[in-house]
Amino acid sequence: MTSDFHSTLHSLRVWDTELPGFDPEAAPDGPLALFREWFVQAARSGQTEPHTMSLATVDAEGRPDVRILMLHDADERGWHFASHATSAKGRQLAEHPQAALCFYWPAVRQVRIRGRVVACGPEESRADLAVRSRGALAAALTGRQSEVLGSAGELARASAAAWERAGTEPDAPAPTWTRYVLDPAEAEFFQGDAARRHVRLRYWRAAGGAWERELLWP
After folding, report:
1. 58-71 confidence digits (pLDDT tens)
2. What's the Rg (C-alpha) of the chain?
3. What is the distance between the alpha carbons of residues 162 and 129, in angstroms, rounded to a whole number?
């Protein structure tokens, strides 16, 4: 298996396809408009689940932690996502409200965003869940995210009960469910190039909140 792993790993190629162009001189003044443009292009190009992203946080000991979750919105307030306040990421954000996001659209582009995270109030958090699917509500009602699980059977029973409740009570409260907004202080847009002359455009907030931008060496 070790030889299979290494032979497979070293046989993989990157940037071995037609890549879109990107002129950083024509980029908008702030990152939101460019992100929305790239997001739509990724979705229309057939990228699978372009709204999935990595969320990086740190724990109480300063150790980094990362996981994949879904983007719920991107607007003038920032990049929105949601989770249980009692989950590992929820506890980490409560103690260290700084985080990083990364969107990776294979063979196309990636976007990295860093900033301060704010937890929304109960009304907005409940509204976040209300527009999602029955399965999302059932998962929220199941709760206990990141806690130790005794057995697969325990999860099956709790999930079945949550699915039933989500069907009969679509407005069921999930008190720990929380919507978060990452207010960006920095955003980097990476466009791959087959000749490895990748384009990296970084936006950063200057004094007073205005956006500045600069190119980075790849």
Report:
1. 999 999 999 999 99
2. 20
3. 14
Compute the distance between CA of residue 155 and CA of residue 160 in angstroms, rounded to an integer: 8
Token duo for residue 111: 């976007």
- Is 129 in contact with 80 (CB distance < 8 Å)? no
Residue 176 to residue 194: CA distance in whole angstroms: 46
Tell me if 188 sits within 8 A of 198, measured CB to CB.
Answer: no
Say if residues 190 and 200 touch (Cβ distance below 8 Å): yes
Is pLDDT larger for residue 56 or for residue 131? 56
pTM of the model: 0.89
Yes or no: say if 188 and 201 are a contact pair by the CB < 8 Å rule.
Answer: yes
- Locate tokens 């980097």: which residue? 188
Residue 178: half-sphere exposure toward Cβ, Cα within 13 Å: 19
β-strand 199-205 against 211-216: which pairing, if any?
antiparallel
What's the CA dihedral at 131, 135, 137, 142 to 10 degrees? -170
Are 98 and 116 in contact by the 8 Å Cβ rule? The answer is yes
Are the beta carbons of 174 and 141 closer than 8 angstroms? yes
How many C-beta neighbours within 10 Å does residue 28 have? 14
How many other CB atoms are there within 10 angstroms of residue 26's CB atom? 7
